[in-house]
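Case study 2.
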Amino acid sequence: MFWLLAILAYLLGSLSFAILLSRMSGLADPRASGSGNPGATNMLRVAGKRLAILTLIGDLFKGLLPIMVAAHLGYGLQQQAWLGLAAVVGHLYPLYFRFRGGKGVATAAGMLLGLYPPAALLALCTWLLTFVLTRTSSLAALTAAPLTLPLLAWQQPAALLPMCVLSGLIVWRHRSNLRDLWAGRERHF
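Prediction:
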């Protein structure tokens, strides 16, 4: 049953709310404009606040739902974390959209919210503080995800390995942003 849930979590994660909402609104594919990322930040740039908020909510839900289902079925925290990670991988490499997905930050936040809400709160506060100081969404995401790891190691060590993999994936998906940050070319709000 666990592997079936992992496949379903991946398929759920493969739903790109940015792309679907853009299509339903008669807008161009968000991967073709702005940063080229089908996520809430780029939706804010190319489609406005309303669609950005809906994208954020949808992407959060994709990470949260597998955790809630797994918890309801009695799976342990580590198994819940692996199922949440499957949803994030679906967001990063969506089956339905030629494996061209987003950066996984909102879906990871939903996963973290389901696993251990204090870590999600830490990530949110870190993201907000970094964003307010730098006006750079990518830097905020790159700071927030790894900063939760010490807290998880201390309070929820069963979730640490999947969350380390998740942090590595988020850094990997932001590698072009890292190059732009080093070169001083990264987009700011």
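The CA atoms of residues 7 and 94 lie 12 Å apart.
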